[in-house]
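Notes from the pairing session

We agreed to fold both candidates in a single pass and log them together. This is the raw record for the first candidate, unedited. Please don't reformat it; downstream parsing expects exactly this layout.

Candidate A
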Amino acid sequence: MISLIELLLIEFQISQKDLDKAISYQGKYGGYLEQILVNLGSLPEDNLPELYSKYFSLPIVELSDWIETELPTIETEDLELLKSISWSPISIKNLNWTFVVKYPLELKANEFIGRKGINATILIGRESDIQALNSRFSDSQSGDVDEAFIGDEEERLRELASEAPIVNLLNSLISRGLRQGASDMHLEPYQGRYRVRYRIDGVLQEVERLAPRMQLPIVTRLKILSGMDIAERRRPQDGKIAMKIANQELDIRVSALPLNEGESVVMRFLRKESVTYDMEVLGLADDVQQYINEDLTKTAGVILLTGPTGSGKTTTLYTFLNELNTDDVKIITLEDPVEYQLDGINQVQVNSDIGFDFSAGLRSIVRQDPDIIMLGEIRDKETARIAMQSALTGHLVFSTVHTNDAASAYTRLLDLGVDEFLLNAALVSILAQRLARRICKHCVQADPDTANLTLKYDLKALAIKFNIAHINLVKGIGCEVCGHTGYKGRIAVNEYLRCDEVIMKMPKDADFIAKARDHNRECGRRNLLEDGFYKAMLGQTTVEEVLRVAG
């Protein structure tokens, strides 16, 4: 039989250094070696079921095989004991019991088995599996969740949300999302259960379906942590959690939204230490990066980023500011909210509740004598007008607007009421952006459909136009590293429009967008779809992914 240390080193690739550190800690303070490694961030908690399965030669539970089966009859006192140690009894036939367990050598469980004279069959499960199975016992006792909380409801909710199983389950879901690189975690009622989904590289993936009775304690727990009113279930609420998990500093923005069947909660993970604001990381094509570098040398003017929510506009702006952040310039940002703190940059958060909105904030910022200003978003006429006038008085201004492409930013600003002469005088360039998923480097292979895709989307003509010698269409076949999606990380897909003399002289009428696109094409620049295909032909993403984000 292989030892636990050998299993950790060989099968789970734990470094000798981390193992020595964990063994030293265990010698001083006790505890399970594998749990110490989890706390150190060396071993993902999701790997524990597989570790225990291999070490103890026990099977891992298939939750779907048991979640709908008939509940065994068990005394309340016995059930509470098993729940407290993350064991779930799923089958009882005389003295033959089947358990789903988190840790097989739990002392209290083994004492219970010996005392009862039980023949035990053990299956390994995750904390969430065990919670889902155990919650069925509670569901059978009360069909209506709300009826259980009549009278002194708030105090009972607090007690329920503070129980160890709920705390452990929520921590486990958050840790798992972080390890998988999720940007958001969604919890919502769905088909009679409580669904958990992660947004990974911009795409939602379902990871769990919890029993409906888990909804109220989980939502309550999140509301307590984020400073929301736990008794309020009729109106939307927002909150924030600051926590440290696996040595990672983390801010979580929490949004709760009432639905017909309960509440939907979305948590956005903001990692304080894992964000890198580097031009190389953005994935800008060489020609676009050269254009941007030229624009960043300007001392005055407005540089705009456009795109939908979640297209990485703020990250790109932060990267530009990071390039310009030197001791001889003063940079002030106005954001809603300030998501990441940048060293050496003065960041201001708007607060509409006290009348400190973007326009009021911008008026105050200008009096602070900045060289560079960043506005999180241009939302109204007043903000847009002050931004343009600030550019004319010697400030370099960065901001974002929500439009589909670069040229549409002009029409959007005109719709807000900005004078055409101000736009012509102030705008330097506009960069439209989408985020496409990168192909996983660990499972990349040639795309077997290359010939068909090349013909269907006329990629040969594009390759000639953009000087690509060899069309290299590839795809990821899926592996453990990328969660079997074939993608890992994201890359920017861009359309760059320089506000040159030709653009300035064009009338900003109904034909402007089409004429601006034609001019951009004549200058040899790519639109969003072409830039996506360009990066697909270089083997950075796939044609399917380009069509999803820019088609």
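Candidate B (folded immediately after A)
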Amino acid sequence: MVATFRRHTLAGEMLVLQLAIVVVVLLAVAAVSLAQSEATFNRVEGRRVGALAEQLAANPLVRNQLPRPAPEQTLGPLLHSTLVQSGVTSVTVADASGRAVTSTDPTVIGDPLPLGPGVTGGRGWSGEVTWDGGHELVAQVPVLGATSGDLGRTLGIVMIGERSPTVWQRLGGASSYLLAYLGIASGLGLAGSWLLARRVKRQTLGLEPREIAGLAEHREAMLYGIAEGVVALDPQQRVTLVNEVGRRLLDLPEACVGRTLADLGIEGRLRDVLTGTGRDMAGRHDQVVVRNGRVLVMNRMTVTKDGRPLGSVTTLRDRTELARLEREIGSFRSSSELLRAQAHEFANQLHTISGLIQIGEQDEVVRYIRTLTRRRQSLDMTIGRRVRDTAVAALLMAKSSLAAERKVTLRISDSTALGRLAPEDAADVATVVGNLVDNAVDAAAGAGPGGHEAWVEVALRQDAASVEIAVRDSGPGVAPELAQEVFTHGFTTKAAAEGERGIGLALTRLVCERRGGEITVTNTPDGAEFTARMSVSHPVEAVAEGAAR
């Protein structure tokens, strides 16, 4: 047979512990009570036996009979009378040498008394002695001569003793109230233990200590075993829990638990997402936040219990590399869109040429082809003269076709002058240009028909160590209160109009800041103008000042 043992519950363990504490306290109280009882006995009885001994030593009969032969015959009745009247244990009279001459206990006659210090010199003394096989509290007083012949001389010693009660005798005398105290204390301990156990049960959601320990171990394993960051806040915006990944992603100090977000210096967009107080938090779960060069996707959930808010738990995922891959994929998607737009444009032109041929307008075909050729050569020559970097020039020419498909004119500013760049510089410049042009085309095309031409103008300016990119559009512009928020939150121009949020401009800002530059937005009479600046290495080929003329 396999014996099974039932574990004690939290309430049972607390009850046993409380009762054990009550018993220990009662034993300590009993010990203190016994000590106090002994001290009280010594003080009260010591005074009583001392007064009796002084009274007996001053008795004229004792003074007269003690120096005479056989004093026990005359003093015996007096000693027994004193014993009966006072209720003491023993009364003994000794001679000047300290040997008992008479006593209420005949067995001690002739035995030396256990004298205290200074008694033979004429001083009284009281204390505890072991006498006649017992422990007594005694008072010893010298009998002094009163006649002229022996005035002041010690004639003998009177000793009166009161036997000290034993521990069991004292406990027997106090057993009634000690048992009452034990019963009352046990009842109070039992009731208090039960109430305390109920309260602890309620606060621990009915879990036993071993279950709580198991949950704590599982929580630690889960928090520190997942690749995502976790941050928990209480209703006062204090950090109550954060794992190592979350602390690293948010760049928090090690001693951050228990501190508020304000103490940790968390402000702006990140604070809004963690507390759920932003304007766009309602109904949205995944939020994009840029923190210290990282693109974080955060999901916040509110925690409640019985309708009472307990705080919130936010998970964080580092999507920096994913954002970079999405950007690269976006560039391929953009290229495919550009190719599709060009193919669509060429197909329309071919259809026009085919139709002219079918109706026999050969001369009109020639004029149409010459017009298309001059327009393409004009655009290619304009971009080619002003933008010597082939990657950026190809991007702008492709973007012009995409803009034309959306009935937006892409213009190159007369002040544009860009030389050939190093490959890594050209990639970043093309990323910024492409993103800003896409946002500008979205804004210009989304402005809707209003009797005005939709256009986007690009200006590229370069000096020895930096490149400035300015993109203007004929769109509705950016609201003044969103002038900086668009970069923090990841707005795009289209997002600003529709209220949805992205990360395009936030990533553009990261590229500029990584190269020691910046990006700003201002409103012009026609629309919005985004200006980006970034440092580059020495250009492979510089552009002359008059190359754009």
